[in-house]
Structure formats: C-alpha cells, structure tokens
Predict the 3D structure of the following.
Amino acid sequence: MQNNPERTCVVCREKKEKQELFRIAKISEDEYKFDEKQKIQSRAIYICRTHECVKRVSKNKKYSLKMEELLSMAKLLKRQSKDYLNILRAMRNSEHLTFGINMVMEDIEHIHFLIISEDISEKNDRKLILKAKEYNIPYVHYGNKNQLGEIFNKDEVNVIAIKNKKVARGMIE
Ligand SMILES: [Zn+2]
C-alpha cells in the first residue's frame, strides 16, 4: 500500500489514498459523474467514501451533483458497510478479531486489516492511520461507533482489527 497516490477530498480537505475516496469525473463544465471504477478519462474531484462527505458534497452548490449520482454513492456505502458488519458479526467470537484503540495499538504487529468507524475522533483517527502506515496495514472507514459496538454488545467501538492474514485478505478484496 505504499505507492498508492493520494488525493484530497474536496469536502473535508483530507488527503487519502484513492481507494478510500470516491472519484467524481468532471465530464463537462457543469456536469459531474460518479466514476465508480475510477477509470473515466477526464479531470475529476475526489470525496471521502463516507456518508458524512457524501452528504456535505450534496449541499455544495459548486459541484451540483445529480441526485442519481449521489444516490449511487450512498447505496454503495450502505451495501459495503452492511457487508462488513455482517462478516464481523459472524466472526465476533473468533480469536482473529480485536477491538478498541488500546488493544489495537498493543497488538499492532499482529494486525492485517483495520476497520475504523466513520465517526471516530480526529485524534484517534490520526493516531491509527499513522500506525497503519508505519506497519503497512490496510484500513477502511466503515460504519459508526454504535454499529461497530453492537457486534460485541458494547455501546461504542471505534476500531476493529483483523489479526488473521487470510481473513484480512478476504475482506480487502
Ligand atoms: Zn472528506
């Protein structure tokens, strides 16, 4: 994951790897199209693959995105977060999972994939991403703290880690 180019989200101005962002191709002066496969040859803007940034871009007059483009992004987010949640729920009692920032930090050398909640505090988010980069661990932002918490019968969980390489690979692909 080291050579992935980074782009800036036009909404929150955060720099992220392309796979963590939605690409929105600018196909004419005032027309934008959601480029799901990131393949349309044209200039483009990027936004985070989060409900928050999709919601905020929908209110941004500068980009006047069509409702159907916004909906397809929202649908994709919903589907993916649901899938992750289902997979995690099925694995909740396995030794391959650990959760919570302290446990994750402690166990960082054994972790192969991180699922970070979309509403984690900025400070913890930075801390985790820094570590993930240091150890070359792929990560995604999915669901919110309540949804991740539910998996373990907790109120809130801000991060879940996968400690099994094979399982991690299955979730990334
Ligand atoms: Zn953003």
